Amino acid sequence: MTDTSLEQIKGSGWLKEANFIGGKWVSADDGRTYEVIDPATEKLIGRIPWVSAQETHRAIDAAQAAFTSWSLTTAAHRAELLHRMAKIVRDNQETFATMLTLEQGKPLAEARTEMKLGADYIQWFAEEARRINGEIVPSPWKDRQILVTREPVGVVGAISPWNFPFSMLARKVAPALAAGCTIVIKPSEFTPYCGLLYAVLAQKAGIPDGVINVVTGEGAVVGGELTKNPLVRKITFTGSTRVGKLLYKQSADTMKKLSMELGGNAPTIVFDDADLDLVIENAIAGKFRNSGQTCVCTNRFHVQDGIYDAFAQRLTERARKMKVGNGFEEGVEQGPLINEAAVKKVESHVQDARAKGARVLTGGKRHALGATFFEPTVLAEATPDMLIAHEETFGPIAALFRFREEQDGIDAANSTEFGLAAYFYTRDLARTFRVSRAIQSGMIGINAGVITTAEAPFGGVKDSGIGREGSTHGVEDYLNLKYLCLGGL
Ligand code: NAD
Description:
This protein is of the alpha/beta class and 489 residues long. 39% of the residues lie in helices and 21% in strands. The chain has 15 helices and 20 strands.
C-alpha cells in the first residue's frame, strides 16, 4: 500500500483512532497512545488510545445504561438494525478488506473473504433475533401453567484476537445485540482498527449510543476490569488457552457466563484410500491460509504409510509454488506473520523438529522478504516428542507424522490437550463413521479443509474452550432462561 492510499483510507472516516464510549469518540484520560504497525512493511500505520481500567469502567457503565432500553426493543427492530449493519459491511467490503490487510497482513483475497464471513454472521444473527422463542411446558399441576422465557444476560465483555479481527467479533457482537444485550469490545492491540470499525458501523446503522462500546488498551488492564466488574454478566473471549484460563478464573468471583474460543492443534489424518488431488488443495488452504495463523488450521498431518511418500512429494511441490509477499500484491498466497515474535516461535519449532530428526522438504527458514516473513515449510518424519506435536505453531509449517493402522492414526490425532478442529480424508464410508465417532474435537472436516460458516456451530472441547459461536446455538450463551409458574388457573 502506498502512503497516498494510507492517507485515503485514514481520510475515509472508517478508520478511527479514538475509543467509543456511550456514543462519544474519546481518547485515553491521560492521552496515552499505542503504535499500530503494518506487519508487511513494519511501518507505523497510526496510534490508538491506550486506556486504563477507569475508561473501561465508564464503557461498562454506558453499556449498562443503554441496556435498560435496548433490552426492551422488539426483536424485529434489533433485526432491522443488524441487517443494516451487514449491508454496510457488504457495500464497503473493498475498503474494509484493505484496512484488514493493512493491519493484519493477510492477502487481500483472504481479507475480502473474512469481511464476507463477518457480514454473513451479522446477517445470520439478524435473522435469528426473531426466533428467540419461549416455551410452554406441559404442567404436572392441573391449575398451573409453566412458561419459560429467554432474556438477554445484560452487559457483555468481548475480547478478541488479531488473526481474524473482524469476523471473530461479528459472531460476538451480532448475537449479543440480537439477544438484547449491550457490549464492550476490546480488540487485539495489534489489529484495533477492525474492532473500532464496529463503533463506526453502530453509528451508521443507527444503533443507539451505549449499545456498542469499544476500548483499546492492555489486555490485562482492560480484561481485568471487564472480568472484575459485576455489571458485566458475560465474557466472550477468543484467543489463547493461556489467557482464556486466566479470564475463566478472574470471572469466578462475579459468576459470569463464559464463552471461550481458545487455541487448537488440529490434526489432519490422511488415510491410504484418500483422494490425493482433493487432499492436496484442501491441505494447502487448511494449512497455509492466513500464514498458518488460524486456530483451526492443521498443525499435524498424520499420514498413513501407503500414501505418505506420494502425499509428501505432492504437498512439497505445491508449497514450493506458493507466492509469498505483501498481502496487497496480486496473486500473493501467503503474507507476513503478525510480528517478529511470531516468526521466532515458528523458527523455534522448526529448529526443535530438525534437532529431533525431522527432514525439511521445503522452506524451513525466514523468507528473504523481511523479518516478519517465513517460507512455506514442509517437514517430514515428525515425531511425538517434538514441540510441533504438542504446541500450536501458528505459522506456515506442515509437519508430517507417519502411522500404520487406522487406530494409530486416531490415537495420534487425539494425543493433545486441544480439541477444536480435526480433519480426515478417506473414501470408505464405514471408516468415516468410525473415525468421526472416535475423534475428540468440536468440529471435523471430512474430505474438507475449510469448514467455517455462519450456519454451523463453531467451537471446541478440552482445552480449546466452551460454548459455540454461529449457528442457531450461537445466541444461547447471551440468554438466560426464566421459568414462570402461573398458578390459580
Ligand atoms: P491472546 O490470548 O494473546 O490475545 C487475545 C486477546 O486477549 C487480545 O485482545 C489480547 O489483548 C487479550 N489479552 C491478552 N492478555 C490478556 C489478559 N491478561 N487479560 C485479558 N485479556 C488479555 O491471543 P492472540 O495471540 O491474539 O490470538 C491467537 C490465539 O487465538 C491462538 O491461540 C488461536 O488459536 C486463538 N484463536 C481461537 C479461535 C477460536 O475460535 N477457537 C479463533 C481465533 C483465534
